[in-house]
Design a protein that fits this description.
The complex is a heterotrimer of chains A (269), B (356) and C (181).
Chain A: H1 36-50, E1 57-61, E2 76-79, H2 85-95, E3 100-106, H3 107-113, H4 115-124, E4 129-134, E5 137-138, E6 144-145, H5 164-167, H6 173-178, E7 183-190, H7 194-210, E8 217-223, H8 227-230, H9 234-248, E9 252-255
Parallel strand pairs in A: 1-2, 1-3, 3-4, 4-8, 7-8
Antiparallel strand pairs in A: 5-6, 7-9
Helix pairs in contact in A: 1-7, 3-4
Chain B: E1 4-9, H1 10-20, E2 25-28, H2 35-44, H3 46-49, E3 53-56, H4 60-72, E4 77-81, H5 83-98, E5 103-109, H6 125-129, E6 140-142, H7 147-164, E7 167-173, H8 174-178, E8 180-185, E9 211-212, H9 219-239, E10 243-246, E11 253-256, H10 259-274, E12 279-284, E13 286-288, H11 292-299, E14 304-308, H12 315-323, E15 329-332, H13 342-353
Parallel strand pairs in B: 2-3, 2-4, 4-5, 5-7, 6-7, 11-12, 11-14, 14-15
Antiparallel strand pairs in B: 1-8, 6-13, 10-12
Helix pairs in contact in B: 1-2, 1-7, 4-5, 10-13, 11-12
Chain C: E1 2-10, H1 15-28, E2 32-37, E3 47-55, E4 67-72, H2 75-81, E5 85-93, E6 108-111, H3 114-120, H4 127-138, H5 144-154, H6 163-176, E7 178-179
Parallel strand pairs in C: 1-4, 4-5, 5-6
Antiparallel strand pairs in C: 1-3, 2-3, 6-7
Helix pairs in contact in C: 1-5, 3-4, 4-6
Classes of the chains: A alpha/beta (269), B alpha/beta (356), C alpha/beta (181).
């Protein structure tokens, strides 16, 4: 019978199956348990690292739960006023055409107060990447209704559920930007299962790679959860999202470069 | 240095001076009476010569946030607008001040409040010198009184902005924007290839990441930051006060006026002297920092001080603070786009001398 | 020497460009100049005016209430600016459309039939140059040579073929201006 060994005996390079993403800092994430932001941050950090873009990346963080994104990814950052990230990114990219510039914005930031900046940046075909985290709620301020809150969904400012007669309809802004000639690649993904994480990472990687082409705005929505704001456990939140959010916001590519314009082959994992 | 002589509108002079100063980026939105600036730049196409970016934004809100983004990269960036547009920009301006970014903002003031008029005014004084947006901050405010200064203050503004990592406002008005005068332009400067060490340029392996932000949730740290800003403003007050005196040596009556009003007062001084009235003019060139000490000194010597401005008497409050009750301070001005004439100013002066 | 001039009339009469040509000519003659278009409520009612100052010294106020010379091209402008001419100053006007003529006795009044002359020359657009010629005859503050240089500076190159016509118009104005009082 083999002798039971200590855990230290297993910590060997040949046993390594996963390690901390190099580009994530040692700062402790402030996100609630089960929140999709941490996963989205990680795959973004992995892609920037794997593509060797740490020296070229300039990120713009929003106002919302991910306001402190600049504490977590080890790249240069600018922190924008609420909704204005695409305006900052416009100037950053135009003044530094060789850099990879991206914004990371929530639904309130991107689709309510910043709708104008979002639409017009995409319409001008600004050559940066917009990462849009849509969890249908204002997480940071305590769970108020967002522009993407789905009909009937409860929030602190729609306590009886979103009444579309009074409060209007959820805004499918990703569908809107996909119709604009300025956008090059538009996709909607999620990070709530291992399979979806892989797909989301593949879409994001493509969007990052497209940055060197300067052919227009890339836009990746990640439909996400908010267990704290939705007042659910992480597992319940993911199930609720799958059953209620995804039918309204179906996953997949909304706009892909046509065969002639696409010069980057699909990535293999 | 060979300077080129041109006859230009104030608005054109700003645009041409911006190109020649080696500005990296201009972001703006059309509004009367300053649309000539973006029109001039688009026609001049500096992006084909110096590489200067010129972009018409979708709103003043976007324009000022583009300025924030460009300034965060350590670039020489600017915007121009007129009063209602500047009001929209206040959010961006306070973030720029809070993130300690250098930039140039030009306000070709028109009369307000609200949509107001498209005619010249000086009624944005408070907004410009007291902060304008939320929080404790100041802009460095330059007040040109000629087309020449419209051009010269572009370069001066950028110098001050980068020296103090602070937004600089050129507070002008529709009269100087629209009038033509001779202007001597500096030769074309190359755009600077280097940026300050705090700029976001992409993180190389040999430095920590650079973060541009105005956010600090720890109150104790935020207070320290506020104190740091105040120390900076004190240094600016100490070192950067600029003003001009006109026939002040023996003056018994002192006009304090900036921009267009200063030009009007200069003539009023001449008219007064023709009648044997010893009038003088102190023209603040910087409105923040304000020439407090100079006014304080005159308050010991003169009989009356007049704050002459195209507003309801905004600068008058700062003149009164500086005069500290030593001498009567009166406001004279016109509003709503009306510009006072030298004769009106003289009549007002005389009415106060005789006490009518 | 400082010459403070108001030019006033209808929009479209070439008032602003006439002022601009005077300002450019002043620059050619090494003078200080300012050109200040209509401001305030004067912009309304289809009237246009511009204040031009030509001086050997630095110019103080570009905004004035009193002028050395008023160049008047319609009735409203005459009504508005007749009293703004300094004592001993000059009024030059085109009587076309004028029903009430200048009444001041303490200023010199001159008349030019610019509208009619421009018609005779078959070149209505040179109207403002006939007026400028009239002014220069009475107040030769700018040399004709410098005015032609000013025209070259002020006009876009594609209109430089019109300069000879403009020069002719200037001379016609000089020939036809007449003193009224």
């Amino acid at each position: 019978m083999t002798e039971v060994t200590g855990i230290k005996d297993y910590i060997k390079p040949e046993n390594l199956v996963y390690s901390k993403t190099r580009l994530m800092t040692d700062n402790i994430l402030h996100y609630c348990p089960g929140c999709g932001h941490s996963t989205a941050h990680r795959i973004l950090a992995e892609i920037i690292d794997e593509e060797g873009l740490q020296q070229d990346a300039i990120g713009v963080s929003p106002v919302g739960c991910s306001v402190f994104l600049y504490n977590y990814l080890d790249i240069d950052w600018q922190e924008a006023a609420h909704g204005r990230a695409p305006a900052l990114a416009t100037a950053i990219k135009r003044l530094n055409p060789g850099k990879v510039v991206f914004t990371y914005q929530g639904d309130g930031d991107l689709a309510a107060i910043g709708t104008s900046e979002t639409i017009h940046s995409c319409n001008r075909g600004e050559n940066f990447l917009i990462i849009f985290i849509n969890n249908g709620i204002y997480g940071m301020t305590g769970g108020q209704m967002a522009p993407t809150t789905i009909p009937g969904m409860k929030s602190s400012t729609s306590p009886y559920g979103r009444d579309t007669g009074q409060m209007g309809y959820p805004l499918k802004i990703t569908d809107i930007v996909a119709t604009l000639p300025g956008t090059y690649y538009v996709s909607r993904q999620s990070v709530h299962t291992a399979l979806n994480v892989r797909r989301a990472k593949r879409a994001l990687r493509k969007a990052v790679q497209y940055q060197s082409l300067n052919r227009g705005t890339c836009f990746v929505e990640i439909v996400s959860n908010c267990p704290a704001g939705w007042k659910m456990t992480p597992v319940e939140a993911n199930r609720w999202m799958e059953e209620n959010m995804l039918p309204y916001y179906p996953l997949g590519d909304l706009k892909v470069p046509s065969a002639e314009t696409s010069v980057i082959p699909d990535n293999k994992e | 240095m060979e300077r080129e002589l041109r006859l230009m509108k104030g608005n054109e002079a700003i645009a041409e001076a911006a190109i020649r100063a080696g500005t990296d980026g201009y972001f703006g939105y059309p509004i009367t009476p300053q649309s000539e600036i973006v029109e001039y730049l688009m026609e001049a196409k500096p992006y084909e010569t110096t590489g200067m970016v010129v972009l018409q934004a979708e709103s003043e809100i976007a324009a000022i946030n583009m300025v924030y983004g460009g300034a965060g990269c350590g670039k020489k960036v600017m915007t121009t607008s007129s009063s209602p547009g500047i009001s929209l920009m206040q959010e961006g301006i306070t973030y720029i001040a809070g993130a300690e970014l250098p930039c140039l903002i030009d306000n070709i003031v028109r009369g307000g409040p609200g949509l107001g008029t498209i005619q010249p005014a000086q009624s944005d004084y408070f907004q410009s010198v007291k902060g304008g947006g939320h929080g404790d901050y100041h802009l460095i405010v330059l007040a040109p009184a000629s087309v020449q200064e419209m051009a010269d203050f572009v370069e001066l503004g950028f110098d001050l902005a980068f020296r103090y990592r602070n937004p600089v406002m050129i507070l002008s008005d529709g009269a100087i924007g629209q009038m033509m005068e001779k202007v001597y332009l500096n030769p074309q400067k190359e755009r600077s290839g280097t940026v300050p060490e705090w700029a976001t340029t992409g993180k190389p392996p040999d430095r920590e990441r650079n973060i541009i932000t105005s956010l600090e949730l720890d109150s104790a740290k935020q207070e320290l930051f506020n104190l740091k800003l105040i120390a900076k403003y004190d240094e600016i007050k100490e070192k950067e006060v600029r003003f001009e005196e006109f026939q002040c040596e023996d003056a018994e009556y002192l006009f304090v006026a900036y921009g267009t009003s200063a030009r009007v007062c200069q003539k009023a001084v001449q008219l007064a002297r023709n009648e044997g009235i010893r009038a003088g003019l102190l023209r603040p060139v910087t409105l923040f920092p304000f020439p407090e000490k100079q006014i304080e000194r005159f308050a010991e010597k003169v009989k009356i001080i007049f704050s002459v401005e195209m507003s309801a008497g905004q600068m008058k409050e700062d003149v009164m603070l500086a005069a500290a009750g030593r001498v009567p301070v009166f406001h004279f001005g016109r509003m709503g786009g009306m510009v006072p004439t030298p004769e009106e100013v003289l009549d007002f002066l005389k009415s106060k001398i005789t006490g009518d | 020497m400082t010459e403070e001039i108001i030019i006033a009339g209808f929009g479209g009469q070439g008032i602003l460009s006439m002022g601009k040509i005077m300002a450019y000519s002043g620059v050619m003659q090494d003078m200080e100049v300012s050109w200040m278009p209509s401001y305030g409520p004067e912009m309304r009612g289809g009237t246009a005016n511009v204040t031009v100052i030509l001086s050997d010294e630095k110019i103080s106020s570009p905004i004035l209430r009193q002028f050395d010379t008023a160049i008047i091209l319609n009735q409203q402008s005459l009504d508005k600016f007749e009293d703004s001419v300094k004592k001993g100053g000059i009024i030059i006007y085109d009587s076309h459309g004028i029903v009430r003529h200048p009444g001041r006795s303490d200023v010199s009044v001159y008349h030019v039939n610019a509208m009619e002359e421009a018609g005779k020359m078959n070149s209505p657009k040179t109207f403002n140059m006939i007026v400028l010629g009239a002014y220069l005859k009475i107040r030769p503050v700018l040399s004709l040579e410098n005015v032609v240089k000013g025209l070259e500076k002020s006009l876009p190159e594609r209109y430089h073929n019109l300069i000879p016509d403009n020069e002719k118009a200037l001379k016609r104005g000089m020939e036809t201006v007449s003193r009224i009082s």
